[in-house]
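Researcher: Here's a chain I'd like modeled. Treat it as a single chain, no partners, no ligands.
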Amino acid sequence: MDNLDIHLPGISLGGEVWVDRQRLQFGFSRSGGPGGQNVNKVNTKTELRVHPDDLHGLSARARARLLNLVANRLDSDGFILIISSAQRTQDANRRASVEKLRSLVAAALIEPKIRRKTKPTRASSRRRIESKLARSRIKQNRRTVKMGE
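Model: Modeled as a single isolated chain. C-alpha cells:
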C-alpha cells in the first residue's frame, strides 16, 4: 500500500498520525561512494526535513519519545533530517525516507511498559540463604584439616 498517493491532504505515518504534504521538505544531491558514472551525474540522494510540530495526531508523550529517538537527527532549526541514498532513483529514495519517518513514528507510538519494583518473597529469600549455606558447607568439607589444631 502506497500512502504517498492515497491521502490527498497528507501522508499517513501510522496510527492516527499524519503530516501535510507541503510540510515535507525534500532536497536532492549526489550520492557518495561507489556507483560508477551514474552516481557522479545524478542527484539521487534524498534529504527529508520535517518539523515535529507538523506531525498531527501525536500525543505529548509520543512526541517526547519521538524527539528522544531522533535527538541525533535534529538540525539547528529543530527539523528532523532523514537521509536516504540506497536506491538508484530520486523517487525510490524519497519513498525510502518517508518509510524511515514512518518507522520512527511507529517506534514512538509504542508505549513502554512501566517497570514495577518487586520484592522477593520471604520463602525465596530463605531458599537463597539455605542454598548459600549448603554451598558453604560443601566448600568447608573440601578444606584440608591441619594436624594439631
